Amino acid sequence: MRRPSRQGSPIHTPSSQSFRPTLRTAAGAALLAAVMTASMVTGAAWAQSAPAGTAAAGQKKNSMCVGCHGIPDYHTAYPVVYHVPLIAGQSPQYIISALRAYKAGDRTHPSMRGIAGQLSDQDMADLAAYYGRQEGGAK
Amino acid sequence: MRTAKKPLVQMSASMKPFFALSLVAALALPATAFAKGDAAKGHEKAKQVCGACHGENGDKPLQPEYPMLAGQHQDYLMKALKDYKSGARKNAIMGGQAAPLSEKDIEDVTKWFSEQKTSLHVIEK
After folding, report:
1. From A98, which residue of chain B is nearest by alpha-carbon distance?
2. How is chain A split into domains, by residue range?
3. 3-class SS of residue A75
4. Fewest CB atoms less than 10 Å from the CB: which of A1, A28, A96, A101?
5. What pTM was estimated for this model as a whole?
6. What domains can you pick out in chain B, each with its CATH number?
7. Does this complex have an ipTM over 0.85?
8. Which fold would CATH assign to domain A55-131?
9. Which residues on A lie below 8 Å from B122 (Cβ)?
10. Residue B34 contacts A where some CB pair is shorter than 8 Å
């Protein structure tokens, strides 16, 4: 069966997520809605609890970043080889969330775990402001 | 003792085109190593599974904590989805979203997103 396109459907509220066609059961839908709502609440709490960062401060703290993320088409060397992700232009909130996930161990890349583990909340906020999309992004 | 200036490996004229071809193939390999997948099928999948949170082109994250996928490197996106699927990368939402995706789905959908217009870039300093 061809699933209906989601184009044109409202996607602005967490509750509309529970009607996405890929979910097979109402229980699953309810669970996802709950998880997403919780994630949005914690996301908002994070945004409030995170210190304000400045791009100028971030630029002074990025010596650990440029060796990989500052080189176009650079690849990881260990443990698996692939392009290092593009980070400039992501939202500051996503960059903070990624760095926190490395620090917490939810993301496992060894170099990134080592680097993020040394960063304070203020460092993360500053780096996020520097690489985040409002600072020199193409948008 | 060798006196004549003969090449160490003598290549016959008939071998030369094959040698040239293999050089071309070897040079082309790195560029195509991750260019797998069917972007059109990936687009369909993106509409069904990914679009609600990331935008069907991967350029409209629903929440600021969600990443922009448009224009991201395909091999990185594949690594991310496979790690979510295996549980190596932990995220309450993405673990569930990646679980039902096949290897082919992952190739297709990452191919689609990697080819979309993006504001992602490299800051070199």
Report:
1. B65
2. 14-49, 55-131
3. strand
4. A1
5. 0.71
6. 39-114 (1.10.760.10)
7. no
8. Cytochrome Bc1 Complex; Chain D, domain 2 (1.10.760)
9. 69-72, 86, 88
10. yes
pLDDT digits (tens, 9 = 90+) for B9-65: 565 666 665 555 555 455 444 444 557 999 999 999 999 999 999 999 999 999 999
Tokens of A19: 């009607």
Nearest CB among B66, B78, B124 relative to A94 is that of B66
Interface subset of A 62-81, CB within 8 angstroms of B: 66, 69-72, 80
pLDDT for B72-88, tens place per residue?
Answer: 999 999 999 999 999 99
How confident is the model over A51-102, as pLDDT tens digits? 999 999 999 999 999 999 999 999 998 889 999 999 999 999 999 999 999 9
Option in B63, B90, B96 nearest A32 (CB): B96
Alpha carbon separation from B93 to A16, A31, A32, A36, B86 (Å, rounded): 15, 10, 7, 7, 14
Are the beta carbons of B118 and A89 separated by less than 8 Å?
A: yes
Rg (CA), chain B: 22
